[in-house]
Specification:
The chain has about 90 residues and is an all-alpha fold. It has one domain. The protein is built from two helices and no strands. The protein is rod-shaped.
């Protein structure tokens, strides 16, 4: 019975690992949307570019945070699956 539980935990761990990989992949593809500003407004353009860059970094950080949580879950489930297999 424990071996079946271990197999189930390992399968869920694999899925959690795939979710983590997906979120890390997506975090690397967050685009920086540069605004279009009329000429003569360089200071405004720089401020808007900084804002959009920070927003992209925040989104990337959010996705990285989710990926780290999924990775942690995968590690815990893998350890539990191994424990079930050893008994």
């Amino acid at each position: 019975m424990l071996k079946l539980i271990g197999i189930g935990l390992a399968a869920v761990a694999a899925v959690a690992g795939l979710f983590a990989a997906y979120f890390w992949h997506e975090s690397s593809k967050v685009p920086i949307k540069l605004p279009r500003v009329a000429s003569g407004e360089e200071l405004v353009a720089q401020m808007e570019q900084l804002q959009t860059t920070m927003e992209a970094f925040w989104e990337s950080a959010r996705l990285n945070r989710m990926a780290a949580k999924w990775t942690a879950l995968s590690v815990v489930l893998t350890a539990a699956a191994e424990s079930c297999q050893m008994m």
